[in-house]
Amino acid sequence: MIVNFSDRHKFILWRKLWIWLAEAEKELGLAITQDQIDEMQENVENLDLERAAEEEKRLRHDVMAHVHTFGVVCPKAFPIIHLGATSCFVACNADCIILERAFQLLCERLARVIHLLTDLALEHKDLACLGRTHLQPAQPSTLGKRFTLYAQDLLIDLENLQRLRDKGIKFRSVKGAVGTQASFLDLFEGDQEKVLQLEQLVAQKAGFQGRVWTVTGQTYPRKMDVECVSALAGLGASLYKLGNDIRLMASMKELEEPFETSQIGSSAMPYKRNPIR
Fold first, then answer.
1. Which H or E element spans position 153?
2. Beta pairing partners, 132
3. Which intervals of the chain form a coiled coil (predicted)?
4. pLDDT digit string (tens) for 62-118?
5. Catalytic residue selected from 134, 183, 230, 262
6. CATH classification code of 7-32+83-251
7. Could you give the 3-state DSSP secondary structure of residue 137?
8. Do 26 and 32 meet the contact criterion of CB atoms below 8 Å apart?
9. Options 6, 230, 251, 266, the catalytic residue
10. What confidence tens digit (pLDDT) does each residue in 122-145 have?
11. Which helix (H) or strand (E) holds 184?
12. pTM of the predicted model, to two decimals?
């Protein structure tokens, strides 16, 4: 996850997007050579972040700083890097790729947690515990039943994350300034069909076939971000409930964490067993 959200990974994605754009433009007939594309591919990870930072100080523009930095190691390709595109072609599309990968990682890890909770529910299905309402003793239940409640909440969260990963996170793809395709229509001399093909080709190369926003402004719709944050908030609420319940049960000595032989519970009260894991 750290690598996925790193600056280096983001800027390499920018370069990949420029390569995918150039490949698609070449396939549709623009005057781009294979040598230019090969040069870009050979240098996609030849990234000098310090030079890019210096270029940004000089140009006062992050995307153009990286266009120039890429152009230094790709002199033949420099004239066609970012051809017809606007800044959000790389900025927004890279964010979409990063978000999709992040949600994939979350889905994988959350599925493992649900599997572990399922095992715990089965293991402790007959272990009696006291159910409570308003934090007051109510009726008997089982510890296994409690684990099913946590698993059920997290399963809802997993389904929400999977829905966003598979359908909700869409690609901005090939749209020019303020979301129009005027610059690409100029490149293709008014051939609207080629512009539409270009958009789908780039989306396909990026792994977003069939998942492209029909219309956008300069950025992709920020409603997508709201939906992503909402799903993450739901996951956070489920995990908070799980952790808080365990903390309360630990205070009542219904559950305890393992306590190692050399472990110290408190500097002043070594007999204590604070929940720390």
1. helix 143-163
2. 137
3. 30-57
4. 999 999 999 999 999 999 999 999 999 999 999 999 999 999 999 999 999 999 999
5. 134
6. 1.20.200.10
7. strand
8. yes
9. 266
10. 999 999 999 999 999 999 999 999
11. helix 182-187
12. 0.93
